[in-house]
Amino acid sequence: EGPESYPPLRNEAAVRVLQGRMKGIQGHCNSCYMDAALFSLFSCTSVLDSMLFMPFPLCDRNVQGILRDEIVNPLRRTGFVRASSVMHLREQLTDKGQCSSFTNAEKDPEEFLNLIMQQILGIEPLLKLQSGGQKEHECYCYQIFMDKQEDLVVPDVQQLVERSFLSSDLKLVEIPSCFIIQMPRFGKEYKMFSKIIPSLELDITDLLLDSPRECCLCGDVATLECS
């Protein structure tokens, strides 16, 4: 008999199970970067459930089991995960990683995702990006980098991704199976935006390399692109 699985929460069930006090993933000892990442990746979507079940070539089954049985399943079943469960995962990451501070320090979510996806589970990169026509590079998530823009007071995710890709001269080489996006910095010292509106759908038509698009003047297939 295989490991238990609980489907991600959707619609009314998501509201019923996840709303209210003592819901979500309990924070402890600078765990917010990991709590937020895990909640985003697993609470309401199954797109990365292969991380919980697939026997990847490099897969550490112990870490995979903790992630599935102590974090994702309780989150989907009861809407709550204890801080001790996340600490159990952090201790394992400290053992497996090159870094000794996963149990106590504030980290960048990208560092956590790279460690667990690449080194511990051995998953293929999710994104292929190309910058300025140069060689393509692969990664697991995309962090939005941009200068402060006065006209964006309360932006949505669509606007941020488009402007970030434009300012870095980036394109997606192919449609990603999963597009993990890290929002601009929101730390103790510096907040770029006080609020960001989630875009429930993301239009990546203009972000794709060599994707046919229509001319904004005549409506035919465009042959030139103006940034």
From TrEMBL:
PANTHER family xrefs: 40S RIBOSOMAL PROTEIN S3A
Organism of provenance: Sinosuthora webbiana
Keyword Protease tagged: no
Coiled coil: none
PROSITE patterns associated with the record: USP_1
GO molecular function, one term: cysteine-type deubiquitinase activity
Name this protein carries in UniProt: CYLD hydrolase
Keywords: Cytoplasm, Hydrolase
Gene3D superfamilies in the record: Cysteine proteinases
